[in-house]
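Example (one chain per record):
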Amino acid sequence: MDFIERLFGVSPDNGSGATEFLLIVVPLLLIVGVRMLARRRSHD
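Predicted structure:
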């Protein structure tokens, strides 16, 4: 997983893939959390 390196030619994580992982996982976790919160509030 090194799309930042391929697209921009820079390696902020020295090729480990950690930056790309965070760019995918953090937004997904936020989406799941917001949806769970919205569902909880709609049942109150």
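Caption: The CA atoms of residues 1 and 17 lie 5 Å apart.
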